[in-house]
Amino acid sequence: MSHLDNHASQAPIFIVGFGRSGTTLLQSLLTSHPNITLAPETHFLNRWCRRYPWLDLSRPADFDFFWMAIAANKRFAPMELDFPTLRAGFEEEGADRSYRGVFTAIMKAFAELRGKPRWGEKTPEHRHHVQTLLDWYPDARIIYMMRDPRASVASWIRMTERPRDVYEFADGWCDALRIYEKHEHDERVFRVRYEDLVLDANGWLPKICDHVGERYDDAMVHRRDRGNIPVDAYSGFMREHMEATLKPINTDALTKWKKKLASDDVSLVETLCASGMARYGYDREAPDVSSGKLMFEKMRHHAKASRKEGVRRVSKELQRRLHDRGVYIHRDLQPY
Q: Residue 326 CB: number of other CB atoms within 10 A?
């Protein structure tokens, strides 16, 4: 049982970290525990709450708009929830009409559907909102996944087919590390290196179970199946990705980056991530890129990021102003 306190066995569990760092593997392992189910990625905090920060869910019109946006979005389809019944629950006296209340209701309904007493969720980008999760759920257990930045970047490129974004992905890894280090001394936050988990699952899973307040069960390794992981709800790359989590754990992915990343890209990743790699045991293999190359990639990245942020700001401001006039706009700019 967890050394933290005796509330751990009731606390929600959240897996966060830089994307492509083994979060889905850990989700498949934990959700195969007899007592635990972890919802598929909802991006609730980093997309939904961020997208509509001006909404006051205590207002009926605001709540109805937000609920409609959530219930209709394909992100929540794999959870197979009865959204009309869930919605009716918010008509009861004392119902928590807030972002936290909506998120909690969805998570508890998913756990009930799966027949598990413990609930949790895996959205890597929720790393930006660890403090919010801890404020919402003071007893929560956070597991922060980490992986060799070269492997993470190579995996991102394969998934997104965006080879020119090596700087963006490597910079994101560094940012994720800075976020983790803000919380590393909080006993509710536990760091797991993907490499350690893959090389010694039987050694690390009991430690992870201890952190979340559950006894280790070998079903986590040996009985992962579609009953716990909604593979059939996905298609394309995501289905392939989820299928892979059902296979026996192997070490093949540890060094795939050596074949996937060009030598210049390896140098760029290692140059950007040098200090973090040194702190967490990832040995470098390539020389630094030139200062000129580094400056060029940095300027290109920031120019692209500025354009994106500019569009996002304009869109948000438009939606906020229309909202103040009683007009509700979904992301696709169709009025409601």
A: 7
